[in-house]
Each structure stands twice: as structure tokens, then as C-alpha cells.
Design brief:
Structural class: alpha/beta
Distance between the termini: 28 Å
Number of strands: 7
Order of helices and strands: HEHEHHEHEEEHEH
Number of domains: 1
CATH superfamily: SPOUT methyltransferase, trefoil knot domain
CATH topology: Alpha/beta knot
Mean pLDDT: 97
Largest sheet: 7 strands, parallel
CATH architecture: 3-Layer(aba) Sandwich
Amino acid sequence: MRKLKNSELNRKTIKEYKNSKKAPIVLVLDNVRSLNNIGSIFRTSDAFLVKAIYLCGFTATPPHKDIHKTALGATDSVNWFYYKTTEEAVVLLKKTYKVISIEQTENSIYLNDFMVRPNEKYALIFGNEVKGINQKIVDMSDASIEIPQFGTKHSFNISVSVGIVLWDFYNKLKL
């Protein structure tokens, strides 16, 4: 078995990416502090053809060298918007998206049990690395999804959570 060369991967150009049909998913980052996590989320969003990322509160925005270090150019392909508050973004998104907090809450639905509907648009909210999603934002959400965990820790790194959830949604949407 031989590793493929980059030239053999048939990757889209930025123009092709911009013109591609996107997954009916936007990500909302609620006060994410790590620039490396933000960059990693851009990179993962590019891989799963996410429609856009909404950067909210004190979440940093491109251009920034620490975001670019992990994004590897995905800040050029993935559409993004900045909102001073997450509430502002959620109010706007609720008009056309099912808003879902990715958080451990009462009555949360395990990710593997969540039914993704192909004709629905989803706004997936991910929270601060220490405090999670602000309770006010959880209260505004239509549902809460929890990633099942079985060890001694009670959380994943946000960029890992984004990867797990997007992989699951992408598979369920059969894109």
C-alpha cells in the first residue's frame, strides 16, 4: 500500500469549493477562546462542506496567524460571519434553521439517537472550552445533543466535538 500524493487527492480549488453544494449546516461558536481550536474547526468545516461558521462574542476572527496555523487555508474557503453576541446570531438563525446546542443538558439527546432530517437546516452551537455554551443560548435552542462518553472525563476538546458531530451528521444526511 502506497500513500497518495497531494496531486492524487483530487481536491477542490477554492473556486470549486465556493461553487459546491454545501451541507445544510452552519456552526455557531459561542465565545471560543483558543485560536488553534478555531483554526481546526475551519479546517474540519471545509472537509464536510459546512455552509458557514458564525463566530460570536470574544471568538477571534481571521486573519490571525494562530488561526491560520491550524486552518491551513480553510479560512479562505469556508464562509464566516462575526456577531458581537451569540444571542444575535441565534435569533437570526432560528428563522430558517433548527438550532441545536451541543451540550450536556437535562433531556439532551445522544448524538447516535438524534434523527437528522434531510430537508432540515441545522445550526449547531459549540461553546467555550471551559464553561460550555452559555445557559441563555441553551434556553434559546430547539434541542440539545450530547456526545456519549464512557471514561472518567466529562468532555471532549471543542475541535474534536465538532469533528465527531459533523461526521455523524454528514453520514446521516448521506451527502
